[in-house]
């Protein structure tokens, strides 16, 4: 497996697909760029999910997070994009992503996005 940033997420078979159990991960080194100023934005990502058939592979997840380092992204957009990508990769029963961004202009921002298996997606506006 490479050790360079990559948007490719990997999964492995859930060893207990018959059971609901929660996996929680804390990713304290997430970085992207402010699309307005180009300055770095730092965040701690909290991933909490109930797997179905697949679990997220941790090294690939780390490299996926690294892939945002040089990209401009609004907090809301990047949080929801990561949620979409994680759900597409592992198709969980439930997934919550909480992104706690460090202070910018005197304001701490936390964005929380959730996915519930079987629920209709809301229609967004372009």
UniProtKB/TrEMBL annotation:
Catalytic residues, chain numbering: 34, 41
PANTHER family per the UniProt record, alphabetical: NADPH-DEPENDENT 7-CYANO-7-DEAZAGUANINE REDUCTASE (PTHR34354)
Keyword vocabulary terms for this entry: Cytoplasm, NADP, Oxidoreductase, Queuosine biosynthesis
Reaction(s) this enzyme catalyzes, per UniProt: 7-aminomethyl-7-carbaguanine + 2 NADP(+) = 7-cyano-7-carbaguanine + 2 NADPH + 3 H(+)
Residues binding substrate, per UniProt: 56-58, 75-76
GO function terms (MF aspect): preQ1 synthase activity
Coiled-coil region list: none
Full protein name: NADPH-dependent 7-cyano-7-deazaguanine reductase
Location of the protein in the cell: Cytoplasm
Record InterPro entries: GTP-CH-I_C/QueF, NADPH_dep_7-cyano-7-deazaG_red, QueF, QueF_type1
Pathway listed: tRNA modification; tRNA-queuosine biosynthesis
Main location: cytoplasm
GO cellular component, one term: cytoplasm
Top-level taxon: Bacteria
Family classification: Belongs to the GTP cyclohydrolase I family. QueF type 1 subfamily.
GO biological process terms, semicolon-separated: tRNA queuosine(34) biosynthetic process
Function: Catalyzes the NADPH-dependent reduction of 7-cyano-7-deazaguanine (preQ0) to 7-aminomethyl-7-deazaguanine (preQ1).
EC number: 1.7.1.13
Naturally occurring in which organism (per UniProt): Thioflexithrix psekupsensis
